[in-house]
Design goal:
The protein has one domain. It is built from two helices and four strands, in the order ββαβαβ. The protein has helices spanning about 25-40, 60-70; strands spanning about 1-5, 10-15, 50, 75. It has a two-stranded antiparallel sheet with strand order 1-2. The chain starts with a strand and ends in a 12-residue tail after the last strand.
Length: about 90
Amino acid sequence: MAFVLDAFSRRIVGWQLADHLRTHLPLDVLEMALWHRGRQRPVLPSAPLHHSDGGCQYVSSRYTTRLADLGVTARSPTPMTMRWPRR
């Protein structure tokens, strides 16, 4: 499952289910979200952010190239931020 959440409106604007983790899954979801948001109000070129869990499909060259083409800044967790809290 992949989805795009518009943090401004707090709505899911793109989604898709699949039985694989290939790159075209999140690419299709991204395109759906862009289409959906473009219908309601134009997507502003004010440096939108893209947060992901850092999965292989989100760091692939096809996906990161598409984000760069859109002017989107990609953010993924680093190994330091994924640590369990110490007790």
